[in-house]
Amino acid sequence: MPKNNPRRWLIASIFMTLIGGFMVFIGILLNDFNYFWMILVGLLLGITFLVMSGVFYKQARLLDNLLKDVDQLAHWTFFPAEQQEKAEAEFKARKAFNRVLIGIMTFFFVVIVAVFLIFGFDDAEEALFFALLMGAILLSLYGVAFAVPILSYRRMKAALPAVYVSPYSAWIMGEYTQWVAPMTRLTGVNFGHYPDGSVVIAVHFDIIQQTGPQAQICRIPVPRGKEAEGQAVARQIAAINKVSFTPSECVASDH
User: Fold this and answer.
1) Are 89 and 228 in contact, with CB atoms under 8 Å apart?
2) Fewest CB atoms less than 10 Å from the CB: which of 12, 57, 139, 204?
3) For residue 223, what are the domain limits?
4) In whole angstroms, how far apart are CA 240 and each of 118, 181, 208?
5) The total number of structural domains that make up the chain
6) What is the rounded distance in angstroms from the CA atom of residue 13 to the CA atom of residue 22?
7) Are 87 and 37 in contact (CB under 8 A)?
């Protein structure tokens, strides 16, 4: 039985929420303007990971239902070579996405640090401590962005060569994707063949962010010999979520 990884991320998010709350408490207790940044950073961490805790809770619950055959539309198994191909494709896609994410994070961190250094401190030592702390947080986020694709790749290689599909999410060889969630919007479902002969259900959805909708694709591989069942599953996903279904040839950007 596959592991429910969102449950682990839920525990980590709750822990980070508590750290944020602790920073706010210490900042209030010190009652010093020079530690006001601690309250703001604590609020940022606490609110962010409180929201993430809700997201991971829903993911964990939906994945439990999926693996327990509640709302399950399909359960397919694959050969090891197909598993390796899927892992490599996801590794490349995650690296490209994280490069963009790192650029966005760096921009916001630089702006926040610059504003506080200019307007928030009277003491040079306190300002230096704040800059070093924020730099350490940014470096830790760099480390996470670098490590996650590698860990994901290894997890997919070591996971069961199987796929579980529901109308709302899919577990694909160790990777779980949810397209019906807070701040997401399902836009369409495609079913088609790639030039290399593989058959894929492409679930298109947007993640709503500060900069606007960010297009995402969940690529669900269909085993050879299961093409008719795969098309039926794709139609069900589209019908249940009331979005368009398009049987078509998949293009390179969907791979």
Assistant:
1) no
2) 139
3) 168-255
4) 53, 15, 21
5) 3
6) 14
7) no
